[in-house]
Amino acid sequence: MAAYQSTRTAPFGAIATYSFIRFISNIANSVIAWNDARVTRNSLGKLSDRELDDIGLTRGDIADIANLNRI
Fold it and tell me: Where would I find the YjiS-like domain in this sequence (predicted)?
C-alpha cells in the first residue's frame, strides 16, 4: 500500500468560506436551542401545580429545566 503526502494549501477563500459557514451554523444552532427552551418553558408553564407535582417538578424548576435543554 502506498502512502501519499500532499503539502498543497487550501484554495483561495476556502478557509474564509468555511469560517463563515461555521459562523452561520453556530447562529442557527443558538436560535434552535433558544426556541426549544422557550417551547419547554411555555409547555411546563401551562401545567397546574398539581400536574407539575405529579411529574416531580415545582414552578421554580421550570427555568432550570428549560436552561438544561440549551446545553
Answer: 30-62
Work out the end-to-end distance of the chain between its first and last CA atoms, rounded to an integer number of angstroms.
44
| pTM as predicted | 0.69
Domain that holds residue 57: 33-71
Say how many CA atoms lie within 13 Å of 33 toward its Cβ: 12
- The per-residue b/e assignment along 47-61, b for 16 or more CB within 10 angstroms, e otherwise, is eeeeebeeeebeeee
Helices (H), 1-71: 14-45, 49-54, 61-70
Look at residue 25 and tell me if it is in a domain. Answer: no
Q: How confident is the model at residue 2 (pLDDT cuts 50, 70, 90)?
A: low
57 vs 70, more confident: 57
